[in-house]
Amino acid sequence: METLRFRHTTRGPAAGMIRSALVGVVGSGNLEVLLERMLQATECTVEIVTPVRGYDEVWEAVIADFVERASPGGLRISINDGGARPDTVMLRLLQGARTMEVGND
After folding, report:
1. Which residue positions does O-(phosphoribosyl dephospho-coenzyme A)serine occur at (predicted)?
2. pLDDT (tens digit, 9 = 90+) per residue, 63-84?
3. 0.85 cut: is pTM over it?
4. Which residues are registered as beta bridge partners of 7?
5. Orientation of helix 86-102 relative to helix 56-70, angle to 10°
6. Residue from 98, 64, 63 nearest 79 by CA
7. Distance between CA atoms of residues 7 and 104, nearest Å
8. In this predicted structure, what is the pLDDT of residue 104?
9. Which residues lie below 8 Å from residue 57, measured CB to CB, with a gap of 6+?
10. 3-class SS at 91?
11. pLDDT score at 17
């Protein structure tokens, strides 16, 4: 298993007041994403545990794109990857951000 860590400064805090959300499933070609509101309003960290080595630059690009789109300030994001494609990663991250905005706590 490989662990990757990224830290970003965002434009502002993630929308909503939900404290945490879990989206996705751990399985082949998918991933589980845990989002927790526990950082400063313009800070976001992402930790990825993946069985697939050698895709650091792809992960970095997908996470940077997500941060630009969603401005997930205040969130610590943990990803348990099952070999998901980049489009699936982005889908789950956006699903998690939306759940933090409108989901039930």
Report:
1. 28
2. 999 999 999 999 999 999 999 9
3. yes
4. 45
5. 30
6. 63
7. 27
8. 65
9. none
10. helix
11. 92
Residue 9 corresponds to which amino acid? Answer: T
What type of residue is 66? F
Site of tokens 């080595």: 53
CA 92 to chain centre: 8
Tokens of residue 73, six digits: 């300030």
How far from chain centre, in Å, is Cα 24? 11
- The DSSP element (H or E) to which 89 belongs, if any, is helix 86-102
Low-confidence stretches of the chain (pLDDT < 50) are none
CA nearest neighbour of 46 among 4, 98, 101: 4
How many other C-beta atoms lie within 10 A of the C-beta of residue 14?
23
Residues 6+ apart with CB under 8 A from 87: none
The Cα 96–Cα 98 span in angstroms is 5
Token digits of residue 68: 């630009």
Paired residues of 77 in beta bridges: 35, 46
